[in-house]
């Protein structure tokens, strides 16, 4: 584990090993998901990685998230592939219109995730001849919108504090 | 761009349908993702349990003496019930021997701890996560219950963790029979926090509000006689051939902490296979044989866990008179009356 002191954007802090940072994030995210059923607490990490232009990190994190979320889910494998593909698509499209760190843009991504989950889970459950509880699903989708935006804000600040950006000067 | 999209969609559909047929990726995700998550959640659950126990042991002693007195009275009452049931059980074995009945299949009961409820965006169904998996023989469709009633069945298995589909989920269908009137139906969930529904109950079927519904064992997944729910409402429809029956679950699914897993006893299962084994009744000593420790200690109502012979009754069994209504517990230790000849039931997607 490497910890070095640096100064970035006028804010001093300590840079921690990215692997350790994301491992702690995953552990915290899994615990957080226990208190809000149906909400994806891991997705904001992908947006933060994309905003920081850490594509390799985003790819391996997406792989880990897919395995974890598919494992604890109750639908056949494939739902999370579409879930994160949708997230990536809306980020890439939205970046043409918005500045990627704009809070409104993040809220739009969260809103998209809420709507996307409602249709995606309904569609994938239908493919398996299952019937999800639509009322609970709608409630969780609303929670996803709100919590995604809040969590992105916290994670963005933590990542800025503890991880060095590619576009920021090294110490 | 369009070509890449079509290629990706085709690749996805290929993987998805291949996995639906083989289950390889589901198994991979369960054995990695589910296993990892269970290891992450387990320490926290352990700490929470320890803290709870500390509170219970040292700080929450207000009503202990009253509770002790009440429990002592309950033990006396249960001891009397047990003595009577042992006599009935011994008699059942003797009668079974006379009638050349094959004994019902036996089950092994083991405890498990609930470590989480539904998790993640793909958690579309009402489920809980437990800390036992394939390493101790848990498989898909293994029945899960508590001493109060049925919880559900195992949906997905990892090595040391499993996902359990709760009775309250709309996709859960359990064939049940009412304890007193022996009226059959299919119990299905209506979502977490909602009452259950009993489908396919004929209009003229005898059924009372407050009557307990137990598993009928006809689908071959649940042991016969486990309590599931209590009838809370019966309505007669003008346009349907069936009664509209609602039932209240006997288990509080939001505060589940420990559950019991029912796995088939492999030795007894082989012995009881009607296709391979002759009809030989077990020795009378079997009646006095104690139930498995976990069930014995915690779950008298679900202790025996015998399985109804699912489809093909032997000629001797078929010729036997219909079984009488069971005891109020719906089950007897170590042996149980042979099941009555199954009534014709509507074919459903019962689990």
Give a brief rundown of this model.
The complex is a heterodimer of chains A (171) and B (351). In chain A, 39% of the residues are buried. With 171 residues, chain A is mostly helical.
Keywords:
heterodimer, A: 171 residues, mainly alpha, 6% strand, globular, B: 351 residues, alpha+beta, six-stranded antiparallel beta barrel
Q: Explain this structure to me?
A:
The complex is a heterodimer of chains A (171) and B (351). Chain A is mainly α and 171 residues long. Chain A has 6 helices and 2 strands, in the order E-E-H-H-H-H-H-H. Chain A has one domain. Chain B is an alpha+beta fold and 351 residues long. Chain B has a domain of 58 residues. Chain B has a 6-stranded antiparallel barrel with strand order 1-2-5-4-3-12. Chain B has a 6-stranded antiparallel beta barrel with strand order 6-7-8-11-10-9. The radius of gyration of chain B is 22 Å and the shape is globular. The N and C termini of chain B lie far apart (45 Å). At the A-B interface, helix 1, helix 3, helix 4, helix 5 and helix 6 of A face helix 1 and helix 2 of B.
């Amino acid at each position: 584990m490497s910890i070095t002191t640096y100064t970035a954007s006028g804010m001093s802090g300590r840079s921690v090993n990215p692997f350790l940072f994301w491992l702690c994030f995953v552990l915290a995210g899994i615990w957080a998901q226990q208190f809000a059923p149906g909400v994806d607490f891991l997705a904001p990490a992908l947006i933060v990685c994309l905003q920081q232009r850490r594509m390799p990190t985003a790819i391996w994190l997406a792989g880990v998230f897919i395995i974890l979320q598919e494992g604890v889910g109750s639908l056949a494998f494939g739902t999370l592939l579409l879930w994160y593909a949708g997230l990536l698509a809306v980020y890439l499209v939205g970046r043409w219109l918005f500045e990627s760190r704009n809070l409104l843009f993040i809220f739009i991504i969260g809103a998209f995730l809420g709507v996307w989950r409602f249709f995606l889970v309904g569609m994938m459950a239908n493919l398996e001849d299952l019937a999800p509880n639509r009322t609970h699903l709608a409630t969780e989708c609303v929670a996803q919108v709100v919590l995604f935006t809040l969590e992105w804000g916290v994670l963005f600040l933590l990542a800025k504090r503890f991880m060095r950006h590619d576009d920021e000067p090294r110490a | 761009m369009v070509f890449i999209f079509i290629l990706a969609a085709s690749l996805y559909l290929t993987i998805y349908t291949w996995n639906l047929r083989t289950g390889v990726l589901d198994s991979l995700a369960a054995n990695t993702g589910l296993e990892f998550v269970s290891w992450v959640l387990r320490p926290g659950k352990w700490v929470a349990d320890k803290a709870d126990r500390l509170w219970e042991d040292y700080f929450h002693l207000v009503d202990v003496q009253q509770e002790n007195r009440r429990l002592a009275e309950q033990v006396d009452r249960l001891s009397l019930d047990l003595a009577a049931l042992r006599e009935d059980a011994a008699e059942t074995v003797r009668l079974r021997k006379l009638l050349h009945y094959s004994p019902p299949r036996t089950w092994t009961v083991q405890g498990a701890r609930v470590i989480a409820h539904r998790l993640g965006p793909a958690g579309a169904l009402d489920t809980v996560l437990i800390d036992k998996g394939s390493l101790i023989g848990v498989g898909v469709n293994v029945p899960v219950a508590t001493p109060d009633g049925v919880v559900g069945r195992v949906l997905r298995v990892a090595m040391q963790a499993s996902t359990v589909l709760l009775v309250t989920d709309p996709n859960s269908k359990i064939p049940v029979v009412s304890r007193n009137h022996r009226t059959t139906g299919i119990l299905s969930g209506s979502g977490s926090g909602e009452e259950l529904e009993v489908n396919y109950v004929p209009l003229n079927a005898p059924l009372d509000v407050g009557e307990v519904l137990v598993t009928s064992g006809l689908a071959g997944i649940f042991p016969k006689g486990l309590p599931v729910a209590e009838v809370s409402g019966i309505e007669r429809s003008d346009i349907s051939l069936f009664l509209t029956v609602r039932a209240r679950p006997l288990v509080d699914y939001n505060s589940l902490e420990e559950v019991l897993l029912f796995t088939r006893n492999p030795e007894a299962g082989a012995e009881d296979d009607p296709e391979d084994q002759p009809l030989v009744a077990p020795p009378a000593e079997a009646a006095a044989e104690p139930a498995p420790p976990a069930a014995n200690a915690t779950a008298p109502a679900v202790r025996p866990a015998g399985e109804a012979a699912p489809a093909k009754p032997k000629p001797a069994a078929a010729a036997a008179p219909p079984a009488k209504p069971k005891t109020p517990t719906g089950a007897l230790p170590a042996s149980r009356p042979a099941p009555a000849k199954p009534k014709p039931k509507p074919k459903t997607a019962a689990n």
